[in-house]
Specification:
The complex is a heterodimer of chains A (141) and B (423). Chain A has two helices and eight strands. The longest helix of chain A has 9 residues. Chain B has 14 helices and eleven strands. In chain B, helix 4 packs across helix 14 and helix 7 packs across helix 11. Chain B is globular. The chains are: A mainly beta (141), B alpha/beta (423). At the A-B interface, strand 4, helix 2, strand 5, strand 6 and strand 8 of A face helix 5, helix 6 and strand 5 of B. Strand 4 of chain A pairs antiparallel with strand 5 of chain B, so a sheet runs across the interface.
Chain lengths: 141, 423
């Protein structure tokens, strides 16, 4: 499917992540960017939106190191002894989004600074026959 | 909202409030706990009361469906207390479910349709193992964008704490002060799940180790205990176990009536002088991660209805699902400027003897957090405190005006009420 026929849904967003692309929807009237993807501009009422690929450059807005995780993350091998990082990043283009954080130390969260520059990546979890792609950001180093 | 002073179409009063013991009750179901709460509420009504005067039942509940495998709980609760065939309604707004149910009870009476409404809250959480409780609570987050990247509820509030620490220079020790205060209050509440102060908790752990012939921990004070990774493990950095409210079974009940008949039930009704509610985006979509916008708006709406400001509030029960949440709450409600809330527990300002006592019940932290029952649970404490019936934990100075602040999920729903005792 081309951009023109992709509906503005979380399913489409996830489809693009599978292609290694970070895409948002945009209102052609007010130019506002939507991530999470919206199908209706709440400012203009416009429904004829467009897909835009983002630069993937971001900075860290808030984060945590999770020691007690949900079942699906425990199945990835995470535990009290092996925490993981997740948080909220602010994209260069403005929107903020929740994402896994890679390339930083979950065992040493006090060493992580708000504002740290990050770049978009994707992270595959689950078994081969039922894997999913997580939105992730990684430290630039 | 210029020129739009929101008022109820007619006045509503709180004339009774009660709760079950909060805790872990493997041999009970939520209906058993609701009966206990109902009986405690009935006991609190000063004059003759025939429960058949109740015209409708509104129950706050997050997820009996997932926690107990039981949906359609409202008529079951009505039946348990003998109120079939009265109209029974369930309200679900995550952890704000019963705060919102309370507001719906107020609106039902203000509309003129009913004069007497029973409002309740129930949650039975301990039947599931902790991992499945975590998964069930996660359903209150955004399952398309937040939960798939590994956020948990402690994780959301931990992320807010990371932003708050960065902006205002606070740290984990400031949050632990909130836990120390709320457990000290909870120690005086016989309905609390963890009604024990943290220093007493430490001593009990030592005694229990000695009794079992195990090595006795050597914490020299509560700080060594609170920074001990084994005694107080990290849940989601920077939040440790003692920064988190527990997994709880519990129920609460309140009786609302039209103002004009309130004196038939008690000589000391509490008038509902302010009610406010607002919604918000998922956490990542908010302009400010160090405040909950819906709480500010709900507070403003309630203050405006009451014709009061934060300086008029004499005590507050706020939604301390995590220690950082109490800090955000007391700023969002205007008791303190943004960034000035984090050291108020340490300074004693929010203690029972302080300028603005916060969570004299022990809060969700010590009293317990049966999520759908917590909002009406807060109302129970304000009812007791404003009528001088809070026993050992009674706030001195004969307080007449109190506030409750109940938050759903990360703040997508907030509901605030202000109560005033009639002289």
């Amino acid at each position: 499917m081309s951009d023109k026929t992709m509906p503005f849904t979380a399913y489409s967003f996830q489809h693009y992540l599978g292609q290694g692309k970070l895409k948002a929807s945009r209102c052609p009237d007010c130019q506002r960017l939507f991530l999470p993807v919206r199908s209706l501009c709440p400012d203009c009422g416009q429904i004829d939106l467009e897909w835009v690929e983002l630069s993937g450059k971001a900075k860290l807005a808030a984060f945590t190191s999770v020691y007690i995780g949900p079942t699906f993350m425990n199945q990835e091998g995470f535990s009290r002894e092996k925490p993981y990082l997740t948080g909220i990043v602010e994209l260069e283009e403005g929107p903020r989004i929740s994402a896994r954080l890679l390339g930083l130390s979950p065992e040493d969260p006090t060493g992580i600074k708000i504002g740290t520059p990050l770049v978009f990546t994707v992270h595959e979890i689950g078994q081969a026959d039922s894997s999913t792609i997580q939105l992730a950001f990684s430290s630039e180093e | 909202m210029p020129g739009n002073k929101k008022q109820l179409a007619r006045g509503v009063s709180l004339v009774g409030a009660g709760m079950s013991k909060f805790g872990s009750f493997p041999e009970k179901s939520s209906r058993d706990l609701f009966v206990e709460a109902f009986l405690d509420m009935r006991e609190s009504i000063d004059k003759d009361f025939d429960s058949q005067e109740i015209e409708s039942v509104i129950i706050g509940n997050f997820s009996s469906d997932l926690f107990e495998g039981q949906a359609h709980t409202a008529p079951i609760m009505a039946d348990a207390v003998g109120l079939v065939p009265k109209a029974a309604v369930r309200v679900e707004d995550a952890c704000a479910s019963s705060g919102v149910a309370f507001r719906q009870g107020i609106l039902a009476i203000a509309s003129g349709l009913y004069d007497v409404v029973l409002v309740g809250g129930i949650e039975m959480m301990t039947k599931l193992p902790t991992s499945r409780v975590t998964d069930t609570l996660a359903a209150a987050g955004d399952v398309l964008y937040e939960i798939p990247v590994g956020f948990t509820f402690p994780g959301f509030y931990a992320a807010m704490a990371s932003a708050y620490f960065d902006r205002y220079g606070a740290g984990p020790k400031d949050l632990m002060q909130v836990a120390l205060k709320n457990h000290a209050n909870g120690a005086l509440n016989d309905k609390a799940q963890f009604g024990v102060s943290i220093p007493d908790w430490m001593e009990k752990r030592k005694e229990s180790a000695a009794k079992k012939g195990k090595p006795v921990p050597t914490w020299k004070d509560e700080w060594e205990f609170l920074y001990d990774d084994r005694a107080n493990p990290m849940i989601a950095w920077p939040l440790r176990l003692f920064d988190c409210s527990p997994i709880t079974d519990g129920a609460a009940a309140a009786l609302l009536v039209a103002d004009e008949i309130a004196k038939d039930y008690t000589d000391h009704p509490l008038r509902i002088i302010g009610s406010g509610q607002a919604s918000d985006y998922p956490l990542h979509d908010r302009p400010d991660l160090t405040s909950i916008g819906a709480a500010k708006l709900a507070g403003q709406e309630a203050y405006q209805m009451a014709g009061l400001g934060p300086e008029d509030i004499q005590l507050a029960e706020v939604h301390d699902c995590f220690t950082i949440a109490e800090v955000l709450a007391i700023e969002d409600l205007g008791f303190f400027e943004p960034g000035a809330g984090f050291n108020q527990a340490e300074k004693g300002v929010t203690s029972r003897e302080g300028g603005i006592p916060v969570n004299p019940s022990g809060g969700l932290k010590a009293k317990g957090h049966p999520v759908g029952a917590s909002g009406v649970g807060q109302t129970v404490e304000v009812f007791k405190q404003l009528r001088g019936k809070a026993g050992e934990r009674q706030i001195q100075g004969d307080p007449r005006i109190g506030l409750t602040h109940n938050v759903g999920a990360t703040g997508q729903t907030c509901v605030v009420h202000i109560y005033q005792r009639e002289e």
